[in-house]
Protein backbone atom coordinates (compact mmCIF):
# COMPACT_ATOMS: atom_id res chain seq x y z
CA UNK A 1 0.00 0.00 0.00
CA UNK A 2 2.79 2.40 0.94
CA UNK A 3 4.56 1.64 -2.33
CA UNK A 4 1.42 2.38 -4.33
CA UNK A 5 1.04 5.73 -2.60
CA UNK A 6 4.65 6.70 -3.23
CA UNK A 7 4.48 5.68 -6.89
CA UNK A 8 1.27 7.62 -7.37
CA UNK A 9 2.79 10.71 -5.74
CA UNK A 10 5.83 10.38 -8.00
CA UNK A 11 3.58 10.26 -11.10
CA UNK A 12 1.76 13.36 -9.85
CA UNK A 13 5.02 15.26 -9.34
CA UNK A 14 6.23 14.30 -12.83
CA UNK A 15 2.99 15.69 -14.28
CA UNK A 16 3.44 18.91 -12.29
CA UNK A 17 7.02 19.29 -13.53
CA UNK A 18 5.80 18.80 -17.11
CA UNK A 19 3.16 21.51 -16.50
CA UNK A 20 0.43 19.06 -17.57
CA UNK A 21 -2.48 20.24 -15.44
CA UNK A 22 -5.03 17.69 -16.66
CA UNK A 23 -2.81 14.71 -15.91
CA UNK A 24 -1.74 16.20 -12.58
CA UNK A 25 -5.36 16.75 -11.60
CA UNK A 26 -6.36 13.17 -12.36
CA UNK A 27 -3.27 11.86 -10.55
CA UNK A 28 -4.11 13.99 -7.51
CA UNK A 29 -7.52 12.32 -7.33
CA UNK A 30 -5.84 8.90 -7.39
CA UNK A 31 -3.32 9.94 -4.74
CA UNK A 32 -6.13 11.27 -2.53
CA UNK A 33 -8.07 8.02 -2.79
CA UNK A 34 -4.99 5.92 -2.03
CA UNK A 35 -4.02 8.10 0.94
CA UNK A 36 -7.52 7.94 2.39
CA UNK A 37 -7.56 4.16 2.01
CA UNK A 38 -4.11 3.83 3.58
CA UNK A 39 -5.07 6.10 6.47
CA UNK A 40 -8.21 4.06 7.04
CA UNK A 41 -6.15 0.88 7.24
CA UNK A 42 -3.66 2.45 9.61
CA UNK A 43 -0.75 2.49 7.17
CA UNK A 44 -0.49 6.27 7.57
CA UNK A 45 -1.74 8.41 10.42
CA UNK A 46 -4.78 10.40 9.30
CA UNK A 47 -3.04 13.74 9.92
CA UNK A 48 -0.07 12.63 7.81
CA UNK A 49 -2.41 11.73 4.96
CA UNK A 50 -4.22 15.07 5.29
CA UNK A 51 -0.94 17.00 5.34
CA UNK A 52 0.33 15.20 2.24
CA UNK A 53 -2.92 15.82 0.35
CA UNK A 54 -2.80 19.49 1.33
CA UNK A 55 0.78 19.93 0.12
CA UNK A 56 0.08 18.21 -3.19
CA UNK A 57 -3.05 20.31 -3.71
CA UNK A 58 -1.00 23.46 -3.17
CA UNK A 59 1.46 22.33 -5.84
CA UNK A 60 -1.42 21.79 -8.29
CA UNK A 61 -2.97 25.17 -7.51
CA UNK A 62 0.38 26.91 -7.89
CA UNK A 63 0.58 25.75 -11.52
CA UNK A 64 -2.03 28.24 -12.72
Descriptive notes:
By secondary structure, the protein is mainly alpha-helical. It has one domain: Ribosomal protein S20 (Methane Monooxygenase Hydroxylase, Chain G, domain 1, Up-down Bundle), CATH 1.20.58.110. Helix content is 84%, strand content 0%. The chain contains 3 helices and no strands. The termini are far apart. 20% of the residues are buried.
Brief digest:
This protein has three helices and no strands. It has 64 residues and is an all-alpha fold.
What is the element layout, followed by pairings?
Blueprint: H1 2-17, H2 21-41, H3 46-62
Give the tags.
64 residues; mainly alpha; Methane Monooxygenase Hydroxylase, Chain G, domain 1; 3 helices; 84% helix; elongated
Q: Name the beta content range.
A: under 5%
- The value of Rg in angstroms is 11 Å
> CATH superfamily, called what?
Ribosomal protein S20
In CATH terms, what is the architecture? Up-down Bundle
Q: What does the main sheet amount to?
A: none
How far the N terminus sits from the C terminus, by CA atoms, comes to 31 Å
CATH class: Mainly Alpha
How many separate helices? 3
Number of domains: 1
Q: Could you say which overall geometry the principal axes of the C-alpha atoms support?
A: elongated
Count the beta strands. 0
What level of helicity do the residues show?
over 70%
Secondary-structure element order, as H and E?
HHH
What is the mean pLDDT? Answer: 97
Structural class by SSE content = mainly alpha
Unreliable residue runs: none
CATH topology: Methane Monooxygenase Hydroxylase, Chain G, domain 1
Amino acid sequence: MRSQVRSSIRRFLVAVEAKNKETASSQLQKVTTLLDTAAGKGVYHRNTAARTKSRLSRKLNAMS
